[in-house]
Design brief:
The protein is mostly beta strands and about 500 residues long. The protein is built from five helices and 48 strands.
Length: about 500
């Protein structure tokens, strides 16, 4: 029987009686009850009560002049920083009509040095340069945090004058000069000079709402907003864009809701080092614009050492790297109701961690820039006690896959059930790396695939992988997988 997955709003199975993701009664599987929580972030108020800051005033001066717990109403305009802001505990920064907090200054003085235009006196080089790993390794421009913008177009950094072409810039750090191949006449040209917008230490319970935060020369692994020391912050309804490193990074107890985080040089968001981090209803798109090697650390997100991380109702799309990535020491992770599409790496990657629930997500078209098993829609690497259910995993470069790529912990407690998996390439299954005893993973470790629905291309039969070999449907089921599953074909 041929089953076809319709692309309606719910991605339901057209003309099919099969249970859909989210239909728990029909699916009949075991499910963990998630605690209720808010699903909508609060919009910026139409009126702001507090200390009013208007264009021409200095935000840091207002911070210094007022105590902890004060609300600042930042009115529409552009506020160009000369140093990172140092908020105090409990202070609230509320944007009125989308003010811009910028880490760039305007370059207005160019000299013609045929065939280029040159701006001198550029002493903003970050002391951490160079930093990071670029892709390909023959390119090193991503390691330098200083950016240049022609209008609002982020120019590509080349590392020699001979490479300079329209759409790029060359920073001669020894001479403190920036070279352009484009005529700056009639354009606003900006150079990023400040490393961070809001520093996280030592302030707690800071609120950022309704701001546009852009063009910071954030070094690799650094963030324009926050950091792991940002504890119990609330970051909501902001637009964070065009920063070199990471857009938003947070620590224990921080909630990040309703933000648009796009076009960061390295990565959209990150977090870790504590309990109670919430990412909800954010849009994280088109990150890793500066050519970072995303197997190193780049793309949509990365979380390390988190406890009880909740990632719910977000959209992660078109990031050059993994969409959602929990790497090393995460436990109690919940990925719920996200839409994850067209990221170059895996859609969701839970690696070297434990106890996670991945459910009710729509994961489409990911992994086309990756190789090996890293192409999966959902990828589990050397992790324990992961339940994956009620997801739609459609036409990624792989299905739902687990890989044992390290000696410990051994993959165990992997429960993949009641998902709809559409594959036109790649595999679904479990693979053990070289030098690791396969029986230790395949036997007695409670790793199972059950009651999943598969729609696969008709051009091959071995869409599954188990015990180190590609398997047909019959072989897959002989090993005890999806004995109650559904199988059909789809147009590829």
């Amino acid at each position: 029987m041929k089953l076809i997955l319709g692309v309606a709003a719910s991605l339901a199975l057209a003309a099919s009686p099969l249970p859909l993701p989210g239909d728990r009664a029909a699916a009949g599987g075991r499910h963990r009850v998630e605690p209720a929580g808010p699903t909508q972030s609060r919009p910026p108020p139409r009126r702001c009560k507090g200390v009013h800051i208007r264009p021409g005033m200095t935000i840091q001066s207002a911070i210094d002049a007022h105590p902890e717990g004060v609300t600042f109403c930042i009115h529409r305009g552009t506020y160009r920083l000369t140093e990172p802001l140092q908020p105090k505990t409990g202070q609230r920064f509320i944007g009125v009509r989308r003010p811009i907090v910028s880490g760039a200054r305007i370059l207005s003085s160019f000299v013609r040095r045929e065939p280029y235009w040159v701006a001198g006196g550029q002493t903003q080089e970050d002391s951490t340069n160079p930093q990071g790993v670029c892709r390909p390794t023959t390119y090193t421009g991503c390691q330098y945090a200083e950016g240049v913008f022609l209008g609002d177009r982020n120019l590509w950094q080349v590392t020699s004058l001979e490479e300079l072409v329209p759409g790029s810039f060359y920073f001669d750090y020894a001479a403190d000069e920036i070279y352009l191949a484009d005529d700056p006449g009639g354009h606003t040209v900006e150079a990023s000079v400040v490393s961070h917008a809001f520093a996280s230490w030592p302030a707690k319970r800071v609120v950022l709402r309704g701001l546009v935060i852009e063009k910071f020369a954030t070094p690799a692994k650094g963030s324009a907003v926050g950091g792991w020391a940002a504890r119990n912050w609330l970051i909501e309804k902001n637009e964070v864009r065009w920063n070199h490193g990471i857009g938003i990074c947070v620590g224990r107890g921080t909630e990040v809701r309703g933000n648009r985080v796009h076009d960061q040089g390295q990565m959209g968001v990150c977090g870790g080092g504590g309990r109670g981090i919430v990412f909800e209803n954010n849009v994280v798109t088109h990150n890793n614009t500066e050519g970072f090697e995303w197997g190193w650390e780049a793309g949509g997100s990365k979380f390390i050492g988190s406890k009880g991380l909740l990632v719910r109702g977000n959209r992660f799309s078109h990031n050059v790297g993994t969409g959602l990535w929990t790497d090393t020491g995460n436990s109690g992770t919940r990925y719920i109701g996200n839409r994850i599409e067209h990221n170059a790496g895996a859609g969701i990657y839970h690696e070297s961690s434990s106890s996670a629930v991945i459910r009710d997500n729509v994961i489409i078209g990911n992994g086309t820039g990756a190789g090996g098993w890293d192409r999966a829609g959902i990828l589990i690497g050397t992790s324990t006690d992961v339940e994956i259910f009620d997801n739609v995993v459609k036409k990624n470069a792989g299905g739902i896959f687990a890989k044992q790529h390290g000696a410990s912990p051994l993959i165990s407690g992997l429960d993949v059930h009641d998902n709809v998996i559409v594959m036109c390439m790649g595999s679904t299954g479990l693979e053990v790396g070289q030098g690791i005893e396969a029986d230790a993973v395949y036997s007695g470790k409670r790793n199972r695939f059950e009651r999943n629905t598969y729609l696969v291309g008709a051009d091959q039969t071995t869409w599954w992988r188990w015990r180190q070999e590609a398997r047909t449907r019959a072989e897959w089921r002989q090993f005890g997988n999806d004995t109650k599953g559904r199988f059909g074909t789809t147009k590829c």
